[in-house]
Backbone:
């Protein structure tokens, strides 16, 4: 079994579906972060069989957990301070997501207007539907 | 400062106030003829329009105001690549209120985010056309005397017709509303209207193919154009096109009080012979469109008439 050391301050993102850690690494823009990051793939899990884990050593205000909530709200986020878990955060679907996904509707103003944020609102919590702020098109529908 | 992006921006109570003002304008137009003296409407049409542009401009002129603007994108800075945000910042320095029609959906919303003057969405692609919906509501209220307890037939292209979607969304806020959706299978209302609007709000509705089957039960018939290019094949179009042409013989099946509305332009979906029928109110609808746009301009400019 591979051992990855404890972190002093930062996050442990646990219960990531096996194989998804690398895309989450980029979605969270961890590649832009000048911090120690460990990606553990295919770790054994009683609950999931196999899972991925990401450990990030950084200040606890550095991560946008709203993005994570959108990517997969089943991921467990452990917040670490002085080597101890100080909080296990439950992720929820964010009401608004900004500049995470792009509207694919070619008729939408976001397709031509420069400098416009890509904003989506959660319009149906049950069905996890997000709609573009500008054209109201459902994400993934076009 | 308020803008108008969607017909749902106004609550039912605010709509009542707006329509009461439109009624008063209709009854005493001279009372309002100088109410916008010294004010300017910027009429910014990035794509062609006949009715909406002329109606908005007429509304401002009737109020004693003046109009500046452009009627196609080629004669604006958009042809040089200027963004909507930059254009509206500039227009905010020239005018007191601005109406925007744009082929891109959400463009008026972008304008409203940067504007220091009220913005009216005069149509954005296939998305919203709120002043048409306000026109439809005022026409129905004025000629039917109510916006509740109505069985409304919506006929034609219910899939791509933005006026139909907006009207459904606006009318479900009233009590005892029932819809009959009359269209070819290819042009039925989108799922989000059927599921997220009608079913979710327990609004009774039925979907039928032939207009004749339901005409006798309707209080209102809202006609839209069925375009040939919307059909999957020519055969289907030829087989069905007559189902959606309202003529004298079909009007004989309808109730005496049933009203026929149409957002216009009409091509051939309503035969010219129907125009003389008292129940055909689509040209009156155009006149109501001016009154409601006058009321809208006064409301957004917060002009008080004593």
Residues:
């Amino acid at each position: 079994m591979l051992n990855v050391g404890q972190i002093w301050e930062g996050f442990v993102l646990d219960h990531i579906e096996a194989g998804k850690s690398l895309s989450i690494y980029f979605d969270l823009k961890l590649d832009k972060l000048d911090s120690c990051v460990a990606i553990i793939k295919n770790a054994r899990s009683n609950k999931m069989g196999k899972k991925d884990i990401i450990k990030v050593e950084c200040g606890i205000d550095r991560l946008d957990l709203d993005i994570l909530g959108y990517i997969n709200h089943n991921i467990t986020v452990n917040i670490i301070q002085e080597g101890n878990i100080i909080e296990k955060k439950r992720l929820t679907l964010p009401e608004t997501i900004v500049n995470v996904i792009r509207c694919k509707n070619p008729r939408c103003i976001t397709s031509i207007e420069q400098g416009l944020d890509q904003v989506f609102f959660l319009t149906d919590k049950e069905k996890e539907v997000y709609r573009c702020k500008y054209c109201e098109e459902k994400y993934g529908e076009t | 400062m308020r803008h108008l992006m969607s017909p749902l921006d106004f609550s039912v109570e605010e709509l009542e106030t707006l329509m009461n003002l439109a009624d008063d304008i209709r009854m005493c137009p001279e009372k309002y003829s100088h109410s916008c003296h010294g004010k300017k409407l910027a009429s910014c049409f990035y794509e062609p329009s006949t009715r909406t542009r002329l109606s908005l401009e007429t509304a401002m002129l009737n109020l004693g105001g003046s109009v500046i603007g452009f009627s196609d994108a080629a004669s604006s800075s958009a042809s040089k690549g200027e963004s909507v945000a930059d254009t509206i910042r500039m227009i905010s320095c020239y005018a007191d209120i601005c109406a925007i029609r744009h082929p891109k959906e959400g463009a008026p919303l972008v304008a409203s985010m940067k504007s220091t003057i009220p913005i009216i969405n005069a149509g954005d692609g296939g998305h919203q056309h709120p002043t048409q919906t306000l026109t439809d509501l005022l026409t129905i209220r004025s000629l039917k005397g109510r916006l509740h307890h109505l069985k409304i037939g919506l006929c034609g292209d219910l899939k791509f017709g933005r006026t139909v979607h907006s009207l459904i969304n606006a009318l479900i806020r009233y009590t005892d509303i029932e819809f009959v959706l009359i269209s070819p299978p290819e042009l039925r209302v989108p799922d989000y209207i059927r599921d997220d609007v009608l079913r979710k709000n327990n609004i009774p509705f039925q979907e039928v193919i032939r207009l004749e089957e339901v005409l006798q039960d309707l209080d209102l018939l809202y006609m839209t154009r069925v375009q040939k290019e919307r059909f999957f094949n020519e055969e289907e179009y030829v087989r069905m096109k007559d189902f959606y042409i309202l003529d004298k013989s079909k009007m004989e099946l309808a109730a005496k009080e049933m009203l026929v509305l149409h957002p216009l332009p009409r091509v051939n979906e309503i035969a010219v012979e129907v125009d003389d029928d008292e129940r055909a109110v689509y040209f009156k609808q155009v006149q109501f469109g001016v009154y409601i746009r006058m009321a809208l301009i006064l409301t957004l400019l917060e002009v008080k008439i004593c």
Observations:
- The two ends of chain B are 21 Å apart (CA to CA).
- The interface with chain A takes residues 83-85, 102-107, 109-110, 124-127, 192, 196 of chain B (CB under 8 Å).
